[in-house]
């Protein structure tokens, strides 16, 4: 006997969606695997046992351009050293002072995870990751755009910022059973004389 009940339809996922998910899983797995020990990485020692896995991964897969471009552009990249074998053992944070044309000064507190609420930490975690580079001597090419961005945040055409000083604060994280150092060491690692033409370009970009 015929019925008027609608027949259920099987839904199929596009092959392109499946391929994208497979590509994504491969990319984050390849990127997140730890690097081989430094002696193996530099060729001083031949890989042994399971060291062959991170060795071949870094040599042939980790620098694969599609993976690199995809992960860096989307922000999905992450390093294994967040967890092991040698996680960060230094607590560090940033701040800046901005000087204006009339000689006045303002203090800028870069987002600091320890001072933020749970929601803000989730939203602004990438600020901490960025400072891992912008506060590092090996990435000094980031210092000028970093300082210029801060100057732009405090831009006032009637009294423009003229100088930005970047500071980093750090202290070692105490090991188990050890007393934590209370004070931070402080160092002004970059002083930027604001390029007024670059500041005007940034200003015009918002019009």
Total separate domains = 2
Indicate the proportion of strand residues: 15-25%
Radius of gyration: 24 Å
SSE pattern: HHHHEEHHEEH
Overall mean pLDDT stands at: 87
Low-confidence region ranges: none
Helix amount: 25-40%
Order of strands, widest sheet: 2-1-3-4
Shape field: extended
For the termini, the CA-CA separation is: 70 Å
| Number of H/I helices | 7
Structure notes:
It contains 7 helices and 4 strands; from the N terminus they run H-H-H-H-E-E-H-H-E-E-H. It folds into 2 domains: 67 residues, no CATH class; 115 residues, no CATH class. The termini are far apart. It is an alpha+beta fold. The longest helix is centred in the first third of the chain and has 18 residues. A 4-stranded antiparallel beta sheet has the order 2-1-3-4, covered by helices on one side.
What are the defining features of this structure?
4-stranded antiparallel sheet, alpha+beta, 2 domains, 7 helices, 4 strands, 207 residues
Quick summary of this structure?
This protein is α+β, with helices and mostly antiparallel strands. 38% of the residues lie in helices and 18% in strands.
Topology overview:
Layout: H1 15-32, H2 38-41, H3 52-61, H4 65-74, E1 90-100, E2 105-109, H5 118-134, H6 143-153, E3 161-172, E4 185-193, H7 196-204
Antiparallel strand pairs: 1-2, 1-3, 3-4
Helix pairs in contact: 1-4
